[in-house]
Input
Amino acid sequence: MSSPNAESTAFRSALEVIRAVEPRVAGAIAAELADQRESLKLIASENYASPATLLAMGNWFSDKYAEGTVGRRFYAGCQNVDTVEALAAEHARELFGAAHAYVQPHSGIDANLVAFWAVLADRVEAPALKRAQARQVNDLTEADWFALRRELGNQRMLGMSLDAGGHLTHGFRPNISGKMFDQRSYGTDPATGLIDYDKVAEIAREFKPLILVGGYSAYPRKVNFRILREIADSVGATFMVDMAHFAGLVAGKVFTGDFDPVPHAHIVTTTTHKSLRGPRGGMVLCQPELAEQVDRGCPMVLGGPLPHVMAAKAVALAEARRPDFADYAQRIVANAQALAEGLLQRGARLVTGGTDNHLAIIDVTSYGLTGRQAEQALLDSGIVTNRNSVPQDPNGAWYTSGIRIGTPALTTRGLGTAEMDTIAELIHTVLSQTTAGANADGTGSKAKYVLDPAVADKVSRQASELLTGFPLYPTVDLT
Ligand code: DSN
Output
């Protein structure tokens, strides 16, 4: 462990160097730390990376082009990039028990695009090349190439719908995934809010997708990946899981057996910055038969890899392999459950009635609000969340009817279940004292709201007081 002094010195010195060139950037960086220290962050997809992870990103690796893979680059002089990329991949394989890890994706969307194209290359392009006795696409005749392009653009994907908690890259029409694939969605049972596996199987039998996607960004329950794999197998689909939100819970062995996607899926994608607590970025894990296609991610789908971020991924993944990470992951879930329980006890309505992961979705229509109104009222009160659709949302994807809350960040700060109950009280106070506003013509507004500023100020002060006991980056002193 480095000394606290070393961390303060490192960040202070970095700011001094930046300040000498563009003081406004140095000021904004310092202000961001101050803002993060003061805000009660309940955004389920955010966290606080360690000083070592942050520092691994600010260095000379940023200057290097490294298209290709370890030992097989399109540029000379990549020996040090090879070192960090190989380390990140090794840590990822060990941490998740994966056969292969590809650590170049810049984000979760990039990781999903790499995965989609790896499956398309394996299941559509490779057989077409074989039929045409061609080694690669440049060897195809114009007619064969035209036919292959049509075939690649006419494949089916089945994923969880956005309003049920799926991600926009799982086939939402405005996203590239919805445009690339002939797409269908599975939702959740209207009565319970839970995935109905029989229904998924029924849609899969009828639709026969090439890819079945599991995973979510706003579903508060465990998913049985063994059952989804059986469904995929029964229709000949490749099973892909996007574990971006809950990768930290898989790494920390909260989700094991049927609930760990890695042994069940052909291919798994993730971000590295959410519950996994690494740098902003993405990653793909896969079975050996897809490894070669996955490794073509750059330059097939991705621009040049970010070696400085791969260095930080290696650091964060090494941290996640330590025993204390499992304790952290358990505390994330205990906190989410305590927060959910605190809200339920005060009369809030939660999608599925609770949580068994890191997040919960408050259905704010029970407070007479839209998600947009609730999000803003909470923000006025020093509580940072994001609005989110609920299943069959009557207010659509912009205004929404839900508020998504998550505990990875506050758990990193050290808050525990007692503090979660206090936070539930603060959230309930704000939501129950906010009313929907009206437009100038007297009609109801989905955006305007009325909240007594004295209530917002009081809650803000209480939130700040709560956080003073849990300093963020206590080893970093910029003064
Ligand atoms: N934007 C992320 C989230 O908040 O869930 C997913 O892409």
